[in-house]
Amino acid sequence: MVRVLHVNSSPRSNNSHSLTLAEEFLTAYQESHSDVEVDTLNLFTEDLPGFGVHAAEAKMATFFGQQHSDDQREAWTATRRVFDRFAAADVYLFNVPMWNHGVPYMLKQWIDIITQPGWAFGFDPAQGYSGLMSGKRAVVLYSSGVYADGAPASYGTDFLTPYFEDWLNFVGITDYQAIKLFGQVLDPDAALNAEKALKQVRELASNF
């Protein structure tokens, strides 16, 4: 069985371009793969734990090989539950809209929860960081309203794709493919390009 974790980082439901692409991918993927289990994580409705004082101190205690206090242990246990759901998947599907030229804040919170030493990454003083999530595969479906590749700087800057793809590589997910549907607000051919993106998604899902 192939376990797919779909991480939806858009709150816009049926009005979301990135979510529309993701749903198209899932439909085509399940049609062409007989043994698939999909777990959908909606970051804007999921009750994610905060990553405050106790969780941050637990992270540093872990990093330096120290014991956790009771408060730290409780926070770390809640954090681990979120990570375990992430780690259980074989394939990741991310739909990621651009917010203020970067990632949505709930996606950043989720990343900060799961990206922990000894879980998602390792560290060696002589060698540096190493990702621990190797062997996983990912599809990333990006969207933006105004920003488009090649547009003048007055239309925004892409901090989204470099950040997110750097994170994938950091945790060891190096086998990923991405499709971008950018600039829908100002694109005179927005509907046509949206349909082209859906076609790309269907083709990717069938051959992934």
What can you tell me about this protein's structure?
With 208 residues, the chain is of the alpha/beta class. It has a single domain (2-207), classed as 3-Layer(aba) Sandwich (Rossmann fold), CATH 3.40.50.360. It is built from six helices and seven strands. The strands form two sheets. A five-stranded parallel sheet has the order 2-1-3-6-7, covered by helices on one side. A two-stranded antiparallel ribbon has the order 4-5. The longest helix has 18 residues, at 70-87. The protein starts with a strand and ends with a helix. The mean pLDDT is 95.
Q: What's the SSE blueprint?
A:
Layout: E1 2-8, H1 17-32, E2 36-42, H2 53-63, H3 70-87, E3 91-97, H4 105-114, E4 121-124, E5 128-131, E6 137-143, H5 160-170, E7 175-181, H6 190-207
Parallel strand pairs: 1-2, 1-3, 3-6, 6-7
Antiparallel strand pairs: 4-5
- CATH level 3 topology: Rossmann fold
Q: What does the main sheet amount to?
A: 5 strands, parallel
Could you estimate the helical fraction of the residues in percent?
Answer: 40-55%
Count of distinct strands: 7
Mean pLDDT, as a whole number?
Answer: 95
Q: What's the SSE pattern? A: EHEHHEHEEEHEH
Nutshell version of this structure?
The chain has helices spanning 17-32, 53-63, 70-87, 105-114, 160-170, 190-207, and strands at 2-8, 36-42, 91-97, 121-124, 128-131, 137-143, 175-181. With 208 residues, it is of the alpha/beta class. The radius of gyration is 18 Å and the shape is globular.
